[in-house]
Amino acid sequence: MRRIFRTPTGILAIVASVLGGLALAMSMSGCDAGTGSAAEDPSQANTLFDSLPVYYPGTETLGSDEMRITFLGTSCIPRLSQECNSIFVEVGDGMGESDQFVFDLGTGVMAKYNAMGIPTNKMNKVFLTHLHGDHTSDLTHLYCFGPSEDRKAPLYIFGPSASLLTDPVSGHYYSDDGVNTFCQDLRKVNRWHTESFSFESTSYGTASDPARPTRASWGLPCDPTPASDGICPDNPIDGYALIPIELDWQKSGVVPDDNVAYNNPASGVKITHFPAIHCRQGSISYKLEWNGLSMIFSGDTKPNHTMVKQAAGVDVLIHEMVVPADVWAMKNFHITDSTQIDSVTWTTALAFATAVQNSSHTPQGAFGYILSQISSPPRLTVATHFQAADDTIASALTSVRNHYPTGEVTFAADLMVLNVTKTEIRQRRAVVSNYAFYPKATLYHPMNMPKYHNTDGTMNPYAQINRTDEIPPTDPDTGEEYYREDGY
User: Fold this and answer.
1) Which residues pair with 147 in a beta bridge?
2) In this predicted structure, what is the pLDDT of residue 197?
3) CA angle at residue 319 from 314 to 320, to 5 degrees?
4) 6-15, 372-381, 403-412, 422-431: which has the minimum mean pLDDT?
5) Secondary structure letter of residue 170 according to DSSP
6) What are phi and psi of 189, to 5 degrees?
7) Containing H/E element for 316?
């Protein structure tokens, strides 16, 4: 198939012809399409996102009956406009306690969590759909630096069990690639970091720790132990304790409650999982139910019947979608017309993009078809994992509407915020600072003694370094300052 991306001048007519469709999508999503025109180059603008009403993080209290979903990463390709995959879900205290969850934590998103003012102590429960790098990479930062901020309690990583694949010729088991092994290896890789930072206190006193849950209160069958790297055991209440919760990716709830990942009566949140079809055995999707509201986060997946069944009647369906294979190939080569490169190169590039799609993803038309098959359509469907700009949105909207002519559909972008109640779903875009520091810390006291400490129990920042070649701030004999700080 040959597809032409017209030059900036020529494509204005294309964009203009779909602005009505974009306006329809915006109005159905509860936002004003505005009066601005499409950008000169529609691959460099997202009119749909820019038209959303603004939201200023930290300026409103989450309602007791409200669920808030914040998109921190919405692409598989790291882009300044869209980092890799992650959403943050918060629920109010209408069922008892408030609760918060991270779903996937891909490349580059921690900067946006910081900008949104989301502290690390609210990021202690991470639900991974699968173990691709664009869904897991920023776990390194959360794990390593959380205890230096205010996450001084274990990091719980929920994710799929091993793929169970064997070599079709030898019959040998490939590897143990489930989340248990993933966490053990992550612990091992980061041992130098965690030791070096352990001159700080990285845990609360057991009795005074408000962040440490009772695992039974999460519906877990036992008290999981921290992932071990084989070097030395971790204190199970420490911020550097990394605790995997491995979920059987084959379960889908056919046997009642065999697919429960989390069930907390204190907050009223129940999270279940079900199989996805993506690249390799061991991918899952999640469904969160709370206070009569529900949302699904698909992760990466090809179209499947289980999703059609699970999505019936949900309030928000967040489902992956990819640009067409030929568009993907052209974007990779920075061309607007497939004839701009030789036919052999084009055929190879298209075959590669098609293979990736066929192994792993939901194309635009299939996305629309899935929605048309859901017996009770979602109140709002959000396409994510999709490089959203005016040109790609216009194309996708046409494909989706060919199968799903009505129903509320929108396209995710980083810093999009949904506030969900039983009567309304508000879409907004967060306005944040590009220069934000870490969020305001919330520290509880007392904290336990640091691993590397002085005899009086205070931290010892010099315990692990050789200071013989150090240039000190002052001359030890005369007291003269070698250097001084002239800041604030």
Assistant:
1) none
2) 95
3) 175
4) 6-15
5) T
6) -60, -30
7) strand 316-320
